[in-house]
Design a protein that fits this description.
Structural class: mainly alpha
Number of strands: 0
Largest sheet: none
Strand content: under 5%
Distance between the termini: 14 Å
């Protein structure tokens, strides 16, 4: 299979995986949101930062090193596998003994047992990192899809059943644990890969020399990307953290489906053309424009229709999450710039520069948080948007030098899509105000408003001959 067919196949199956898994996951989360309280989701959010840190420690960036190594062999994979297992055990031991401190920090005694049980997923995940890496390196996202979807369905059924039976926050823990367990079993059975009884220190040093900078970057990112969760959980009631996590989860639905799907494909794809800067820029530019072409209108329309959407889908008790969601929509539009720019640095092997950027960006984030805290929860949310906007140009400055594609050029290329997205959103808002005047129910407001926005945006994109629309047609035809 040539590179173009491989990339198209990867995109197709990644989209299938993302749309199905996110769609199924969203349905499951809707049912759970109706059964559980916002505070219970907030409690899970409190330990998310520690789970994320443990996950970063386990991988240590070695998976990325394997993907960018075209001649990685069985000994490479086995060496990384055993290191991951050892790392997962160490991470779990640390988490186990620090659980009481975590509970004391948030003043939530239940977090002791929750953290200790949830942390077992470290060891289970470590058993599959190399399996996923091998599939990603081959761009075999079809197999990943076949494995992931049954896992999320099985875990979701268990979570809903436990929530219905009154297990509260524990239903969320056991749901995610069971999902991890199911995917692990399937990966070992379907991929048939097993580690050899070998650990090559030279190969470990080779991969670790590249990955330790990513490890440090990942740890910094894990801590500071979750700093808002940490601050909100510490300074406000669990329910407010629940609203924040719910708003963030809904935003991730379109962002992960579109941007996240392509991001999984772009890294191995960029790796194959990393020495051809002109071609790399061309591919990067096309992908970025296409992602913003879809993400911008979706998030803007969702922001306009947030009130009827949250009330209809999650019920009245989740309405306080609406303003959280509307602010975070801006951050969601900016997110793709970060991930794709950083992919360029990784494929170029500049993990040192990646680390330097993380230090700069997180220093900026700490300053932003400190300045935002006096303005309460909404000050913190706007701080996310401001920090994300500034770091966009920081990332683009360094990666842009490699492919001659500056941050201003990137913004300029997506401005037309952003402009017609705002127009479509304005039209939708006007129609929704009319429907409110006629006291229409939430379902009609969502349906009519959404259809108005889609038709408005699609018509303008067609009239102005947007290239991304033609690129989409080409992908569908191929």
């Amino acid at each position: 299979m040539n590179l173009k067919k491989q990339a198209l196949s990867g995109m197709l199956w990644t989209f299938v995986q993302q749309f199905n898994s996110q769609g199924i996951g969203f349905i499951i989360s809707v049912i759970l949101a109706r059964l559980l309280l916002p505070a219970e989701f907030g409690i899970i959010g409190m330990i998310s930062i520690f789970i994320t840190i443990g996950t970063v420690l386990i991988d240590s960036g070695l998976a990325t090193s394997l993907i960018r190594t075209p001649d990685a062999d069985q000994e490479d994979f086995s060496t990384v596998f055993y290191f991951n297992i050892i790392g997962s055990i160490v991470a779990y031991i640390i988490l186990y003994f620090t659980a009481p401190l975590i509970a004391k920090f948030f003043n939530q005694p239940i977090l002791v047992n929750l953290t200790r049980v949830f942390g077992i997923s470290f060891i289970i995940n470590a058993l599959t990192i190399v399996h996923y890496t091998r599939l990603t390196q081959k761009m075999d996202f079809k197999t990943q899809t076949i494995i992931y979807i049954p896992s999320i369905i099985g875990g979701g059924i268990l979570g809903i059943l436990l929530a219905y039976l009154g297990y509260g926050v524990w239903s969320l823990v056991w749901m995610r644990m069971f999902q991890t367990f199911l995917s692990t079993i399937q990966l070992w059975i379907i991929t048939k890969w097993k580690p050899s009884l070998s650990f090559n220190m030279n190969k470990f040093k080779y991969h670790f020399n590249f990955s330790y900078k990513l490890l440090l970057s990942g740890l910094i990112d894990a801590v500071f990307s979750n700093i808002y969760t940490l601050v909100i959980g510490r300074m406000f009631a669990p329910a407010q953290l629940g609203y924040y996590t719910r708003a963030n989860t809904v935003i991730k639905l379109p962002v992960d489906n579109i941007s996240g799907s392509l991001n999984k494909v772009t890294f191995p794809l960029f790796s194959t053309i990393k020495n051809d800067n002109e071609r790399l820029k061309k591919v990067y530019k096309k992908i970025l424009k296409m992602v913003i072409f879809f993400i911008a209108p979706i998030l803007i329309l969702m922001g306009v229709l947030a009130t009827p959407m949250f009330r209809f889908v999650f019920t009245e008790k989740w309405l306080p999450a609406v303003p959280y969601f509307q602010i975070l929509c801006v951050h969601g539009i900016i997110y793709p710039f970060h991930s794709y720019n950083l992919n360029v640095l990784n494929v170029k092997g500049r993990s040192d520069l990646f680390l330097k950027l993380e230090v700069i960006k997180k220093t900026l984030l700490v300053i932003t948080v400190a300045l935002s805290i006096p303005f309460g929860i909404f000050g913190l949310l706007w701080g996310i948007v401001i920090s994300s906007s500034i770091t966009l140009f920081i990332n683009a400055y360094y990666s842009g030098k490699f492919i001659n594609y500056s941050g201003l050029e990137q913004i300029k290329d997506v401005l037309p899509a952003l402009f017609i997205s705002v127009i479509a959103g304005s039209i939708t808002w006007g129609v929704d105000q009319v429907l409110i005047g006629f006291e229409m129910n939430d379902f009609i407001r969502i349906s009519v408003g959404g259809l108005t926005g889609v038709i408005s945006y699609g018509t303008m994109a067609y009239l102005f001959k947007f290239q991304s629309l033609h690129d989409l047609k080409d992908i569908i035809k191929k």
